[in-house]
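User: Some background: our group keeps a shared notebook of sequences we're curious about, and every so often someone picks one and asks for a predicted structure to add to the entry. Today it's my turn. The entry only has the sequence so far, pasted here. Could you supply the structure so I can complete it?
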Amino acid sequence: RTANVELNKQITLNGMNGFPDVRIDSFQLPGDAPGGGILMELGTILNSPSPIGVQLGTIVMAVGYDGINLGTVTAEGVNLRKGDNNIILKGTLIPQSDNASLAKVSTLFSNYVSGAISNTSAAGISCAPDGVNPITWLSEGFKTVNLNVALGAGAPLKIINGVSLGYLDLKFDANTPYAPTINGPSVVADYKLPFGFSLNVTALSQNITLAINTTGTETDSFAVINAPSTPAVTDQAAGTITFPLNSVALSGISGKEATYNAYTYALTASSNYSFMVAGVAQTNANTPIGAISLTNISFDVPTSVVGLSFLNSSATVINSIDVTGGTSEALQLAISVSMDNPSDFSISTGDVSFNMGASGTQLGVVTLANLTLARGANTVAATSTFDPNGSDVGKNLLSTFVMGQENNLDITGFTNSTAVTSLAEALGAITLESTLPGLTTAIVQGASLSVLSDSIASGTVAVKVTIADPFTAGLSVTKVVSAATFNGMPLGNIDQDISSNPIVVAGKSTAQSGDLSMTMNFEPSVIALLIRQLAVAAGLDTQALDALFGLGGLNVEGQEDVTATASLFTNFNISEYTLEAMKALKVDLSLTSGITIGQYSTDLSFSQSDVSVSADDSVLLLIPIVGQPIVQQIVDGSVLAFDSVTLSSPTNSGFAVQMKGSISNTGPMDATISFPSPLTVAWQGRVIGTVNMANIEAKADVGASFDVSGQFTVTDGTAMGDFAAYMINAESFEWDITTNDVSVTALGYTFNSISLEKFVTLAGAQGFKNDVTITSFNLPSNDPAGGISLTAQTVIKNPSQVGFNLAGASFENYFDGVDLGPLSSNGAAVFPAQGTANIEMVGRLITQTSAEGIAALTTVFGNYLGGKSTSLTVKGVSGSGPQGEVSWLNTAFKALSIENVILPGPTSNLTLITSINLLDMEIDFTQDPWAPPTSSKNVQAQIQNPFGFPLGVTQLNMNVAATYGGITVATLDVPDNSATTDATGLVTTQFSDVPFKVQDQDLFSNFVALLTLSPSVTFGLEGTSNAIADTAVGTLTLPNIAFNVDTTLAGFADFNGAATIEQLSVTGATADYIIVSLSVSMTNPSQISITLGTINFNVVLASSSTVIGKVYLNNLTITPGTQSYAVEMHLGEGSTDQAAVGAILTDYLTNQNVPLSIVGSETSTDIASLKTALEKVTLATSMQGIQANLVTKVVADIHGDDTTQATGTVSIYNPLDTPFSIVSVKATTNYTIVCSTSNNVGTVISVGVIDFTLPEPATIQPKETQTFDGWPITGIDLFAAIPIAEDPYAIIGLTQTVVTLVDNVYNTGEISYNEVGVPLVLTVGGAPLIDFSDNPPYWDYDCQCAAHATTNVTATNTTLSANTTTTATLNATTTLVPTNATSTVPITTTVSATTTSFVTTTVPSTTTTDDSSTPTATSDPTTTEEPTDTSETQTTLAGTSAPTSSS
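Assistant: Of course. Here's the predicted structure to add to the notebook entry:
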C-alpha cells in the first residue's frame, strides 16, 4: 500500500574536509614541453574522508610553490571515493621570467635533489565528469579545492657518479705545507639526472673533501677543497660536466696531518693511486623554464691519478757538472739533470735536497732549488755540495774526474729533503742512481821555464804553469808538488806552498801561474849535458858549443875537442843558440796540487804527459856557469877614475848625478859593461848610498871614456849628511865604489853578477873659504814674511870636483853674533865642479826685538850710510831639491860657516836728505832779538832711501846751520820731535820755540831785511840729523845723517808795498795830535808768522813827502795772507808842517782821497835785529774823506733897519766819532748863475758873510746836529738876492774857515771848508722872503743859454758796494743843451734807497733822448757814494753852477 509518509531525518555525513591528506608518491619531469616549459607528471595519493563518492571525470588543477604558478596539471577519469585515491596528474612546468620566481623554482628543485620537502599547492580549476564538458556547479565546488602537497624525493639523489681530476698542477709551500695550491684545467664529473628535460650546467662550485681508503669500506678524510664558482661545460648526452680548479687550496683538516702525509707519500710512490672525493656542489643551469641554480648536490665517489713512482720510471741522467764555488765545508756544484715525471700532475715543491754519494759514502748534498717537475721529461738545474776531503772515496772521485774517468753516483732523499712537512716523508724516500761523466779538458795546458838571477845560487828555476779552469768558479792553486822528467832524465822537482801568492784562474778561462820554484842540478856538467842534448834534439851544430865548454874545462857526454879562436866566435851568438835548443823541451808531470775554490781547499793529485815547456831568454843565465870566471878576471883588472861628479835634483832619498871619467884595462875582447844594479858608494867605511850608471862600451885593449848620468839613492841619511858636511869643508875625500852586479855583454850574451870594487879620490869644497863675494845687494821692500826683503848678487867659486845643481840653497847671515836673517838663492843654486857661479840671492832682514839685534842692524845700516863695508858670517842652513829641503844637504849646509863675507858699502857717497823745506815759520822777536824762539808746524825733508823698503822716520832731531853766501847766519838745535813719512820718503816734522841763535848780527839783520823786502830768499841748511825710523826689522837709530841743501823761503816782499785803510774813525785827541782809529789790511805773501811787539811808522803825504803823523801797531804779530790789523794814527804827531795837518782835515771833511805813504824809520822798533828791516819798509796807501755837510741849514733874518745885515741861525752836524767844539767861524754865502738870458752866466753873487768868534767854544757831540742862534751876517745885498728868488737853477754855496777843538783838547787852527747846496732861508723882519730849504719849484722856463765848466775825471771804481771805497779826482766839462721844451738839468739825479746801503750813481758819458723833454748831456762818468735814507736825496755834480731840480 502506498502511503505518504513524511520523512524528516537528519543524517550526518563526513565531508571531504578539503582533502587534508594528499601525498605525491612520484615526481617525473620526462622532457621538454613542445610549447615551452617542462613536462611534468605527479603521482598523487589523495585520501578522501567522506563516504560520498564523486565522479569528477577530467579535472584541471593549478600547481604552485611559494606563491608562484608552476603550471597546470590534468587528470582523467577521476572518481573520488572514500579512502586513498591514486590520481596521475600531468601537465607542464611553465617558464618563469622574473628572477624572484626563478629563485623560488631553484629552491624547489634543490630541495628535491637534496631530499628536502617542499610544500606545494594544487588548486582546482574545473572538472568534467564526461571528460569534456564541465558541470558548472560541480566545477564551482571543485574550485574550492586547494590542496597542500609535500613534494620530496625522500633521500638525496645521487646525481654525480664519478670524478676524473685529469692533469693537475700542485704547488707546495713550506709556509703552508698542508694547503698546496691546485690547478686542474679540466676536471670531469660524471652525472645522471632522474629527469628527462634538457639541462645545461654553465657554472659549478664545490666543497670537496678528500679521503683515503683505510679499509675496503672505510675512508679517512684529510683535506678539503673550497672551489668557487667557475664556468662549466655540460655534455648531457655523455653525462659529463667539465670544469676547472683554479688556484684552489688543498687545505688539510686539522688533526689529519698524518693522513695527509700518507696521501702525498702514496702519490710519490705509486704508479697509479686511488682515493675518495666527497662533497656538495652548486650549479647554475639553463633549463626550459629558465636559468636556475641547483644547490646541495652531494657526491661521494672514488677517483685516481698516476703517481711519481719515486721518479724511477726512467734513468736520471747527469748532463753536465760545474763547480760554482766553495765554502769552508764543501765545493759548490751546478748540475744539469734530466729526469722524467710519469704522473698526471706537475708538482712544485720549493727547494728539495738529496744526499749525493758513491760506493756507500755520502759526498755531499744535491739541492733542486724551487723544484717544479712538469709532466714528462724535465731538465732540472741542481746545485750540490761536494766534500772530497771527507773521504778517500771523495778524493778518488775528484782525481778520476779530473783525469777524464766516469763515476757512479747515488742520489737519495733524507728526512730533511724538503722544508714542506707534508712532503718530507714522501721525498725522503726517493733513491736515484746516475753516472758522473769525466772531465774532458786538460788541467795543465802548458808550462814555461825561466832561470832566475839567483837560480845558480839557489839551485832553482822559475816555472810558470798555464792552468785551465773548466768551471764557472775561479780556482786558486795554493800548493804544487810535481816531478818533471825529460827523456827519462829528471829535470826538476817542485814542492812549493804558494798560498801567499796562489795561481788564480778565473772561471771558464786559463791563467798562467806566477813563478814556481823548481829545483835543478846546476852543476856545470849537468847543465852542459842538458843544453847539448837539447841542441842535438833540435838538430843544431855543436862545434862552437864544444869550444866554449873546452874553455871552461868541461867534458860532457858526446862533446868534441874544438879549439876556441876569435874567428870561431865572430858570427856565433851563444844566446840565440841556447834559445833554439830549448825549443825541444817537453816533460812528463806527476803532481799534487792544493787548490782552493771559493773557501774550500783540497789536494788534487793527477798525472799528465807531454806537457810542452817554453823557455824564455832567462835560460841564457845557464851560460855564465861556464863563462863567469873569465869575465870576473877582466873586470878585476880594470881601472875606474872620475874627472867630475855633478849632483842635481836632490831629495832626501837621492839625487841625479852626472859622472865624467874613464875605465881602462878592459881586456882583449870588445864588451859592453853595464851596471844593472846601482853601485854602492861608501865613505870612511860607511855606506852613503847607491848610484846607477849607464853602459860603458869598451874596446879591446883600449877601454872607454864616459860622460854618463845616473841616479844616486841615499841609503843612510845620517852618513850621507856627515859625508856631505865633510866634502864641503875638506880638501879631498875618497869613495869606495862596490857592486856585485856588473854585467858584461860579449858574444851575444850578458854575463851578470860580476863583482866590482874601486877606490876613487876627489877634491872637496874647502869650506868655500874666500870663495864667496857679494857684488851688490838691495833692500827693495818689506817682506811678506816679516822684516825687509833682501836681494844680493853673489859670485861663488867651487874648488871641489863635485858640483851641485840645487833647486835652492839657504843661508843665514850673522853680524857680531846676531842673526840678521835668511838669504837663499833666487831659484836654482848651481855650483859647477871646480867652477864659478853667479847666483842671485833673495832673503830678508828679520825683525829684531833685542837690544843686541837692534844695535847690530844699526851698525850695519850706519856702515852703509857712512860708505863703509860690513864683514858678515854666512852660515849654511839648507839645500833644496825640486821637492823641497833635503835633510842630508841641510846637515852639510849647517856645517858650513863662511867667515869674512863682505857686505859692500855704496859705490858712491850717499845723500840721504836731498831737500829741506820750511813750509811755515813762526818767529818771536820780542823774546830775544839775537835768539828769537822759532817754530814750524810743517818742516818737510825729502829722504832719498838708497833702498826700496819703507823707511818711516818717526822721530828726529837736527843741528842746523842757516848759511847765506857760505857764512853761517844762525843755528837751530832742534830737539827730538815726532815725524811722519809718506810713501815717497817725504818726512814731515815740526819744532817749537827753538832759539834761532844768531852767529853774525850784521849778517842776520841784513838777512831779516832781505826776507822782509824780498819775495823769496834762498839760503843754505847744513848740519846733521839723528833719526829714529820705524822699519819692518825694528825701530832703528840712524845717527849723524849729514845734509847740506839749499832751501827757499818765501819772503814778505815788503808786504806787496801797500796797505789798505779799510775803516777810519776820528776817535779822540790829545793836545799834540788827533787820534784816528784805523783798520788796515796788509798782505803777507809768505808763510812766516812774525811777532814784532809794538812798532810804528811815519805817515807821509805822498804829494809832498811831508810827515803828518805816525801810525802805531801794538803787540803786532803778522800772519800769512791778507789780514786786517788795528792801527792807531796820531795825526799831527811829529808833523813837520801843521798846515798840512789842517789840509788833511779839510780833505777828509770834503770827501777827498789823499795818497799817503807808511814809511819805516830808525825808531820804528826797539828790537835791534829788526831795525834794518823795518826802517826800509815803505807802504803806499790812501785816506778817503767823507762828505761831512757840516752846515745843514742857514736862516738869515735881514734886519729891517739895515738890509745889509742879518742875524743868522746856523745848524751844524758832527760827523766824527769824538766831540768837537767850534771856536770861530768865517763863512761866505754865494750864489752862482748857471743859466740866464743875459750874458752873466757864472757870475757869483755874495748873499752874506759870517765872521764870528764864539764867546766860548760850542761843543757838538759825535753824530749829532746842534743849532746856534745869533750869529751875525753882514754884507747882504737885498736887491741882488731878489733875482735868486726868480732863478730856478739857484744853488747856494758856503765857503768858510773854521777854528775847532777836537775832543776839546786839540786846536786844529783854521780849517778852510766849502759846502755846496746849503739850505738857506731869507726872512725880513721874520717874514719869509726866499726859502731854499726844500727843492726849488718848477717853472715853465725856457733857458736859451749854456753853462760851461771844465773837469778831468779819473775814477778807480764805477760801481760801489757797501764796503768799497772809491777815490776820484774830478774836473768835468759839462755842456747843457736846452731845447724848446721845459726840462731839468740832466746831471741832477734823485735817488731813493733804504738806510742800510750805499747808493751809487754813475753819470753816463753820453745820454741821448728822442724827445724834447730831456736835454742831452755829454760828460765823463763819475760815481758818488753817500749814506741814504728813505727820502729822496739829490746828488749834484760838483763844480757845476746849475741849481738842483727834480728830475
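Suggested note for the entry: The mean pLDDT is 84. DSSP finds 17 helices and 84 strands in the chain.
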